[in-house]
Specification:
With 280 residues, this protein is an all-alpha fold. 70% of the residues lie in helices and 1% in strands. The model has no long low-confidence stretch (mean pLDDT 87).
Length: 280
């Protein structure tokens, strides 16, 4: 019964991954005979002009997106668990950003921030904040902020739902006992809530790390890695190397370098933040 599924998974996931790993050990350019160079591509990737900027901007992007998503998701999850009026409507609205495909999400933000026809510029001009239209995606830090915000917008619902589900598993008698002991709401949050949702936060940290380090869709649609490669994260640099410069071996090496960084970060998160949850 499982054989067809295993064959399909092997065909669409395992084989391409192994083949790309095999390519990373070759000097492989379109129209030329591949030449085995061992770890040459992994050494050469550190000589690419924009590699250190890409590493830096990828790490900064991952940190900012992760922190903002966790903070806002925790705030939303706490509100959802208060069971206020309109909670069901809020949950339904929260699903919308998560359900929108990344490319569609990118196109949406690209038009909102369009220099001439975008809503954002027109609102700022009507309020008197701006005098002229600005091309936000052509300015370095505004372009970075845009891809950060659009990514947080996309990832926030998933993180909020996971944290909300984790909050519902905390026994209410713990809060009641703490309240009887005179502990303040802030004290209860740090003494009870935060430690008990830690496993869920580890999962979210890992999911966000993977998502940010392999970010491509929205960057491709909104900024094309610009301006002047300022928002060219490692995954986008891998795409440029592979499909623009036709260096398939070097592009594969960059992709597996990204995978190695993700693995290291996930192990670090797990070892430093994961603790077994006990309610007794």
């Amino acid at each position: 019964m499982m054989t067809p599924a295993i064959i399909i998974i092997g065909g669409v996931m395992v084989f391409p991954t192994l083949y790309a790993f095999f390519m990373s050990f070759f000097k492989w350019r379109l129209g030329k005979t591949p030449k085995f160079i061992g770890f040459g591509n992994y050494i050469k990737l550190f000589t690419i002009p924009d590699i250190f900027h890409s590493i830096w901007i990828t790490i900064l992007f991952a940190i900012v997106v992760t922190v903002l998503t966790i903070v806002f998701a925790l705030f939303i999850a706490l509100l959802l668990n208060m069971e206020l009026k309109g909670t069901n409507l809020a949950i339904a609205l929260l699903l919308i950003p998560w359900a929108i495909p990344p490319v569609v999400n990118g196109v949406m933000w690209k038009w909102i921030l369009n220099a001439r026809f975008g809503t954002f510029n027109n609102v700022l001009i009507s309020l008197g904040i701006l005098d002229n239209f600005r091309t936000w995606t052509k300015e370095a830090w505004p372009a970075f902020i845009i891809i950060v915000f659009s990514t947080v917008y996309k990832m926030l619902p998933l993180a909020a739902f996971l944290l909300s589900a984790s909050l519902k598993t905390i026994p209410k008698n713990l809060y009641e006992a703490a309240a009887v002991d005179g502990m303040s709401p802030i004290g209860r949050f740090f003494a009870i809530t935060l430690p008990l949702i830690r496993p869920a936060m580890v999962i979210i940290f890992i999911l966000l790390s993977v998502a940010t380090f392999k970010a491509f869709d929205m960057i491709f649609v909104i900024t094309q890695g610009g301006p002047a490669n300022f928002t060219a994260v490692l995954n986008f640099l891998s795409y440029m190397t592979t499909f623009r410069h036709m260096k398939f071996g070097l592009g594969a090496a960059i992709a597996f370098f990204v995978s190695f960084l993700i693995l290291i970060i996930c192990i670090f998160y797990y070892r430093t933040t994961y603790r077994e949850v006990r309610y007794d």
